[in-house]
């Protein structure tokens, strides 16, 4: 809820509908890192969804596991970038 609430007003100010369905799910892991991951996925959806678009956020239990899904009406990830989605990238911020 916290990550969705953070972006609800931002999405609305950009003319984007943000809809969330969140079930009670128990997750094991570092709470800050899980929140960061959720926030990053929602941020990307808001960033790349055009005005008039829609974003849906679902957190549910599926086959006994937590499932977090973010769908948006943005342009999507180019096919050549998909294999690198989960690769860490470090940039030199001193330049």
Q: What fraction, in percent, of the residue positions are helical?
A: 25-40%
By secondary-structure content and strand pairing, the structural class works out as alpha+beta
Taken from the alpha-carbon principal axes, the silhouette is globular
Largest sheet: 3 strands, mixed
Provide the succession of SSEs: HEHEE
How many β-strands, per DSSP?
A: 3
Span between termini:
37 Å
Whole-number mean pLDDT: 88
Radius of gyration: 15 Å
Features of this protein?
single chain, 95 residues, alpha+beta, three-stranded mixed sheet, 2 helices, globular
Fold and architecture overview:
- The chain has a 3-stranded mixed sheet with strand order 1-2-3, covered by helices on one side.
- It is globular.
- The termini are far apart.
- It is 32% helix and 24% strand.
- The protein is α+β, with helices and mostly antiparallel strands and 95 residues long.
- The model has no long low-confidence stretch (mean pLDDT 88).
- The longest helix has 18 residues, at 31-48.
């Amino acid at each position: 809820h916290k990550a969705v609430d953070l972006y609800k007003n931002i999405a609305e100010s950009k003319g984007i509908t943000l809809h969330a369905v969140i079930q009670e799910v128990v997750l094991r892991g570092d709470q800050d890192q899980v929140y960061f991951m959720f926030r990053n996925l929602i941020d990307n959806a808001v960033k790349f969804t055009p005005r008039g678009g829609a974003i849906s956020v679902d957190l549910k239990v599926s086959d006994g596991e937590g499932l977090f899904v973010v769908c948006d009406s943005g342009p999507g990830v180019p096919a050549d970038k998909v294999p690198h989605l989960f690769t860490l990238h470090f940039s030199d911020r001193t330049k």
